[in-house]
Amino acid sequence: MPISPRTLAATCASASVPGAIVDSGALVAWFNRRDRHHARVRAYLDGFRGELVTTWPVLVETVHLLPTRLGVAFLQWVNAGGVTIHEMPPDSIATIATLVAKYADNAMDVTDASLLWLADRSGVSDMITIDDAHFAAYRTPGGKALRNLI
């Protein structure tokens, strides 16, 4: 299990380092000790002192992929401030659709597209993902690549 929600929430709230966008695969690996990427993700996130940011599609996908008990623990961690959820306005759907169509050959889904939308909207280009191959090929609507921190 990740560090306690209170500890991470307090750390993120007082952090002076920039944030990073976090993908569902990294969150699943962090919460699930049986995930093959758990050690890699935990080694990085246990020392991370920035704000984690994400979107609602990532939360939905993460809960879906985790066993129920871990999904509940994840939601409690989110509720305690473990990650900042950026709201997506209705007009973001057009951008999401454009990205999914553009990267259809690279298995782009709504969750991945939402993170590119978030990067473009927030200016945050650092990312925590285990999906290196796909995100290396993706670009934000503004044409920027994201930098995977792990």
Which characteristics define this entry?
five-stranded parallel β-sheet, 150 residues, alpha/beta, 5 strands, disordered N terminus
What does this structure look like?
The protein starts with a helix and ends with a strand. The model is unreliable at 3-17 (pLDDT under 50). The protein has a domain at 5-87 and 124-134. It contains 8 helices and 5 strands, in the order αβααβααβααβαβ. Helix content is 51%, strand content 10%. Helix 4 runs antiparallel to helix 5. 33% of the residues are buried. It has a 5-stranded parallel sheet. It is α/β, with parallel strands linked by helices and 150 residues long. The radius of gyration is 15 Å and the shape is globular.
How many strands in all? 5
Q: What gyration radius follows from the Cα positions, in whole Å?
A: 15 Å
Report the order of strands and helices: HEHHEHHEHHEHE
Main β-sheet description: 5 strands, parallel
Can you tell me the residue ranges where pLDDT is under 50 for at least 5 consecutive residues? 3-17
Fraction of residues in H or I helices: 40-55%
Number of helices: 8
Summarize the structure.
With 150 residues, the protein is an alpha/beta fold. The protein has a domain at 5-87 and 124-134.
Set down the secondary structure blueprint.
Blueprint (H helix, E strand, L loop, with lengths): L4 H9 L6 E3 L1 H8 L6 H8 L6 E4 H10 L2 H12 L4 E3 L5 H11 L7 H13 L3 E3 L3 H6 L9 E2 L2
